[in-house]
Amino acid sequence: MKKAINIFAIVVLSSFGIAAFADNNPDLTPKSVKITGQVVDKVNQEVLAGALVKVEGTDIEVYTDFDGNFSIEGIAPDKYTLKCSLISYTECEKEICIDTAGETVEIELENFTSK
């Protein structure tokens, strides 16, 4: 019986050590990064507030602030397509590849009247 308790204690303590190692080892913990960017008018480069930026294939969508900036946090490094739209502008798609450092993106929207 004493031998069974010792084996149980070793297994339990070993599992705590593995869990602690996984928390401190960046190669084993899932990473999330941040996408930041700005949406501007393609012709005059003015910032566009209120534009909708969506990450295709996910439920993630954000609106740009008054300075045309947006930020998407907690996304895994991968390849994504951003879709951006705003009233009176043509919808734009931009493919990005995010590494572990994150990504900064500029999206240019073209006004219907400038075509």
Question: Short summary of the structure?
Answer:
The protein is of the alpha+beta class and 115 residues long.
3D architecture notes:
It is elongated, with a radius of gyration of 23 Å. The strands form 2 sheets. It has a 4-stranded antiparallel beta sheet, with no helix packed on it. A 3-stranded mixed beta sheet has the order 4-1-7, with no helix packed on it. A hairpin with a 6-residue loop joins strand 5 (79-85) and strand 6 (92-97). The model has no long low-confidence stretch (mean pLDDT 83). The chain is of the alpha+beta class. The longest helix is centred in the first third of the chain and has 23 residues, at 2-24. It contains 1 helix and 7 strands, in the order H-E-E-E-E-E-E-E. It has 2 domains: 1-29; 33-114, Immunoglobulin-like (Sandwich), CATH 2.60.40.
The overall pLDDT, averaged over residues, is 83
Tell me what portion of residues adopts beta-strand conformation. 35-45%
Question: Any idea of the CATH class of the largest domain?
Answer: Mainly Beta
Helical content, roughly?
10-25%
How many helices does DSSP assign? 1
Distinctive features:
four-stranded antiparallel β-sheet; 1 helix; alpha+beta; 115 residues; Immunoglobulin-like; three-stranded mixed β-sheet
Element layout with pairings:
Blueprint: H1 2-24, E1 33-41, E2 52-55, E3 61-63, E4 69-75, E5 79-85, E6 92-97, E7 103-109
Parallel strand pairs: 1-7
Antiparallel strand pairs: 1-4, 2-3, 2-5, 5-6
